[in-house]
Amino acid sequence: MQRRNAALNYYYFILLLLGVVLSTVSRRLEPVWVILPLAIALLYSRLTQTTPAFTVRCQVAPHRAFEGDLLTVTISLKATTAVPPLELWHPLPPEATCIEGSNRHLLTLRPGEERTVQHTLTIAQRGQYTLGRLYGRVHPATDLQPILLEVPDEQVCSIYPRIAPLPRHLPPLHTYASFGHYVSRHAGEGLEFAGIRPYNQGDRLRRVHWRTSLQRQQLYVTDYYCERNADVVLLLDTLVSIGTERVNTLDVAVRAAASLAAHYLYYKDRVGLVNYGGVCTWVPPAVGQLQLYRLLDALLETRTHFSYLSKDITLIPPRVLPPGALIFVLTTFLDPRLETALHDLLARAFQLVLVVLSPVRVMPGKRHPRQIEATARLWHLEMEARMQPFRRAGVPVLLQTSDDPLRDLYPMMTRGPRRTYVPA
Amino acid sequence: MQARHLVMYCWFGLLTLLWVCQPLLVSSARGILVLALLAGLCALLGGITGAQPLVIWSGGIGLFNLTMALLLTSAPPSLWLGLSAGVTLLALLDAQQSLTYLRHCQVAPGVLATFSRTLLRLSGLSLAAGIGVGYLVVALHSTRMDTQAAGYVTILGAAIFVGFFAVFLLRTARLAALKTPDDWGETGDSEIR
Question: pTM for this one?
């Protein structure tokens, strides 16, 4: 804790000087009487210098949340001596908004008193934020020489991209024999009931259907359908990001990727991530809740790294891009370097789904609706022309038309036959 | 919360009115009236926007206005006029600070009462000091000094008074390494000083 002069000291002294000068010049005593309370306040602030004893703790919960979730900041105070008016400030990042309460508190404490104050905030953008650092100012007697304190109770909070549920499931073309939500037409190991058939040599005893066997006086076994799952890879184009710090295409892509990841992991598919940009990073496909958090952590770090070099997609190891995987490509398609990579993937018979994000939706500044509409139509026409080779190859292409880029995914994926890719 | 805001704004408005009307008790000349209006405008703007320098400007203009009004009317010295104006000015500055706190902070019960207690204590001390200064001046006046010597003594006294204060403030100044949060230049509310 340290004392520091407030700006008010200088203002008081200026008024004091003015009063004395006016009094001397006018040879009247009233100006001195006017500035006398200010002089007394200056003297009083210097002569009463008590240092209060108290402890401050700050707790932020939870440490992991999604965009728009509520975070509660709890500040606990315990006073040993009486505490004069104490101002506590919890600085917030620009992306945060205080929903309930205030991040500035002004309070007094009696000796031995314990008090807890809270405020609730929400953070609108993904990222890792350091919260919990408090600044305090104690005002003993007057506001002229406050005692300053700093409470470095820093805690890192991870704010994950918001996950929007997909209304319908989009099953991949290729599946693998493994546990999952897809049921094969063939009987095998699984949980879904397929039928009852007579016992054959080699059938497991635990599969014997005793009720039917007793009725028919012959051994019968239960058959199950084979379970299968699929590989889904989310290919995020981090070559270009359009928009502002707050609203940009990369954030829209990251939110869409998080939604897709959560959706396919729920259906027990193996989901992986590839950040394709100046720096190429990836998360190999895997299943489960842990994988979801692995992917979210990777999405948290996703940034645009500008580079003139483009990474060759063939360098990505096969365990990251398993053969036959369903690949969702989330891109603005503004950098032509991605096209080469996509042609390469098509040639390797991957099932591709192109989600093209519109830069019109994140354009900064206020524009006339007609201007926005014209820009959107121009963008749409240009993209339609550029997407023709992919459409001809049977790749479903979704051009963003609303704030949620995945809104029209289901109708688009269930429309028309799939064609095989013929390299140009 | 809103009621507390309203009460504070009313209190600030009342103090501004009192501060502005002090010179008008002595004279209602057009110049004095204009200066009074200017002081009132500065105080109100400072209170509404939370800009402390504006309230200080209002203090300076009001002080000058009061002196001019007294000079123009050659009214007899009035301890109560000066002291009431001084206490009003102190309360005005204090109310502006409280308003800023109310606007930006979540104020716990009992804080404004603590501020009021300090203000009352300072007012009491000011009253005692004012009466003391009054007696001192009367005692000095009775020593029958000639006009030139009295002028020199006044200038000397003023210089000693200001010099003492300057030295005292410099000696007790605390320029701590730890800055106020607002000095960090972080975005947010930075009006509280």
Answer: 0.74
